């Protein structure tokens, strides 16, 4: 079985009133993290659960929300798996949802099958839940995950005692706690908490297990964390611009990444252009940062179709390309005859940026200078972000092995990518500039996409 890789978000609420409508809204605020499946489980003496294929706002019916009674519950949005999943066990009835992946899934399934366990489908959530349910209580079960599961997980468990929330010992995926009058919450991103009129309290710590109930937040376990390894991609792309993750604002990080690209252009002799523009929405924070540092006008050149899904989280290439086409249309009068600095977060396969450059040139743009916040992606992710392989990474078409070790090598790659996508120039942030702009200590980040180093080894 191929180990499933996931991109998803979790939200949970313990409230003094019915919780489902806030959970539904919380999921809506996290929908950018995965649009294929969504689900809600609530507790009112028993667990009630509804899951759907599609986005929360499009799929949940009013009667289903009415059915989901209870004052505490959990929700999930996902690219790959239908969650939460509900189980009866020696721990009573529980529902589990997580954001992450199990990279040693095959090994764990073989081990559990050898001990007489049966698997319904072999989804990652099934492995996680069965490991938890083998132990005498939920906390011991969550602690057991850290010894058995390789990968990344931010996890929520619904039970009669309340909601358990936990983060793997490296803290790959974000997980934050929030509170408001009569309500306690945990979410993949702070925006879900703040937009529901609660205050952000803090991040769940790597290796921490928290119980959320009418007493608020109680830390029931704190596992040793050998180091932090927060996914650097969260600040550059995955998280919403209005979120704060591990104490760092996504918006400010993206502004600094854009400013760093502008500074490089200024240091290398300056770039004459009529406007700075973004590939919406993921390039906006970077483009504004470039604009502020360079003082070149910011101008929108694409109209964003808010009714189309985000292309990155579509599950196959054909769907991604079709969606990318539907997502953005060129504002022709803004671009005709103009020299444009076009900012985006990253180049994975290169097909999307190629289409954008082609569309702008077809509409009469004179020059397109592409500026990319992330350094060239050199390695696939082993921790559940997308399904990239070496073959899918554009930079690997030119640098077959090893890392980028000098600015000369980076410039050479940039010239080749520019030629491939039809741009007048391409520049990326170097890895050093990227880390400096994020503003998070390098030793607290996972940078495996760029340096190939597995932070868990
Ligand atoms: S390998 Fe890349 S995408 Fe995966 S967790 Fe590390 S930085 Fe994030």
Description:
The protein has 457 residues and is of the alpha+beta class. The chain contains 16 helices and 23 strands. The radius of gyration is 22 Å and the shape is globular. Helix 5 packs across helix 6 and helix 9 crosses helix 15. Strands 3-2-4-1-10-9-11 form a seven-stranded antiparallel sheet. It has a six-stranded antiparallel sheet with strand order 5-6-7-8-12-13, covered by helices on one side. A four-stranded parallel sheet has the order 17-20-21-22, with helices on both faces. The chain has helices spanning 20-29, 56-59, 62-67, 105-114, 124-133, 138-148, 190-194, 233-238, 250-267, 284-294, 317-327, 332-335, 351-362, 407-421, 431-438, 448-451, and strands at residues 8-15, 37-43, 47-53, 72-78, 85-89, 92-102, 151-159, 162-167, 176-180, 183-187, 199-203, 208-213, 216-222, 230-231, 244-245, 248-249, 275-278, 302-304, 328-330, 339-344, 367-372, 425-428, 445-446. The chain has two domains: 8-226, 4-Layer Sandwich (Glutamine Phosphoribosylpyrophosphate, subunit 1, domain 1); 252-451, Rossmann fold (3-Layer(aba) Sandwich). Strand 12 (208-213) and strand 13 form a beta hairpin. The two termini are 24 Å apart. Mean pLDDT is 93; it is low at 1-6. Iron/sulfur cluster binds at residues 172, 231-233, 381, 383, 385, 446-449.
Q: List the domain count as a whole number.
A: 2
β-strand amount: 25-35%
What is the residue-averaged pLDDT?
93
Major sheet characteristics: 7 strands, antiparallel
Q: Cα-atom Rg, whole angstroms?
A: 22 Å
Number of helices: 16
| Proportion of helical residues | 25-40%
CATH topology tier name of the largest domain = Glutamine Phosphoribosylpyrophosphate, subunit 1, domain 1
Which cofactors or ions or other ligands sit in this model?
iron/sulfur cluster
Q: Uncertain runs with pLDDT below 50, 5 residues or more?
A: 1-6
Indicate the CATH architecture of the largest domain: 4-Layer Sandwich
Shape: globular
The helix-and-strand class reads alpha+beta
Biggest sheet, strands in spatial order?
3-2-4-1-10-9-11
Distance between the termini: 24 Å
Number of strands: 23
CATH homologous superfamily title of the largest domain: Aminohydrolase, N-terminal nucleophile (Ntn) domain
CATH class of the largest domain: Alpha Beta
């Amino acid at each position: 079985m191929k180990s499933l890789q996931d991109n998803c978000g979790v939200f949970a609420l313990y409230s003094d009133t019915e919780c489902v409508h806030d959970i539904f809204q919380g999921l809506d605020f996290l929908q950018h993290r995965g649009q294929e499946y969504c689900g809600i489980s609530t507790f009112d003496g028993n667990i009630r659960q509804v899951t759907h294929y599609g986005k929360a706002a499009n799929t949940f019916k009013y009667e289903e929300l009415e059915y989901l009674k209870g004052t505490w519950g959990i929700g999930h949005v996902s690219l790959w798996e239908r969650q939460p999943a509900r189980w009866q066990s020696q721990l009573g009835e529980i529902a589990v949802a997580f954001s992450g992946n199990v990279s040693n899934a095959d090994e764990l399934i073989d081990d559990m099958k050898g001990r007489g366990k049966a698997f319904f489908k072999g989804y990652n959530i099934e492995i996680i839940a069965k490991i938890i349910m083998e132990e005498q209580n939920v906390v011991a079960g969550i602690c057991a995950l850290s010894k058995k599961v390789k990968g990344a997980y931010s996890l929520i468990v619904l039970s009669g005692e309340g909601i358990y929330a936990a983060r793997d010992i490296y803290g790959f995926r974000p997980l934050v706690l929030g509170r408001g009058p009569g309500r306690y919450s945990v979410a993949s991103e702070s925006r879900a908490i703040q937009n529901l009129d609660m205050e952000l309290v803090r991040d769940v710590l790597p290796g921490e297990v928290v119980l959320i109930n009418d007493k608020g937040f109680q830390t029931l376990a704190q596992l040793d964390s050998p180091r932090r390894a927060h996914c650097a991609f969260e600040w550059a792309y995955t998280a919403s611009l209005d979120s704060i993750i591990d104490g760092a604002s996504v918006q400010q990080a993206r502004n600094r990444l854009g400013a760093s690209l502008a500074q490089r252009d200024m240091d290398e002799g300056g770039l004459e252009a009529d406007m700075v523009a973004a590939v919406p929405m993921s390039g906006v924070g970077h483009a504004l940062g470039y604009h502020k540092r360079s003082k070149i006008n910011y101008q929108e050149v694409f109209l964003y179709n808010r009714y189309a899904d985000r292309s990155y989280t579509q599950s196959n290439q054909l769907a991604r390309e079709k969606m990318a086409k539907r997502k953005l249309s060129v504002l022709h009068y803004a671009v005709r005859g103009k020299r444009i600095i076009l900012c985006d977060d990253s180049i994975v396969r290169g097909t999307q940026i190629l289409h954008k450059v082609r569309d702008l040139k077809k509409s009469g743009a004179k020059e397109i200078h592409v500026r990319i916040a992330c350094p060239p992606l050199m390695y696939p992710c082993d921790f559940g972000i997308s399904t990239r392989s070496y073959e899918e990474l554009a930079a690997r078409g030119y640098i077959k092995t090893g890392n980028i070790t000098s600015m000369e090598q980076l410039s050479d790659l940039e010239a080749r990518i520019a030629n491939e996508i039809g741009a007048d120039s391409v520049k990326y942030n170097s890895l050093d500039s990227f880390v400096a702009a994020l503003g998070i200590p390098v030793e607290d980040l996972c940078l495996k996409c760029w340096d190939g180093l597995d932070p868990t080894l």
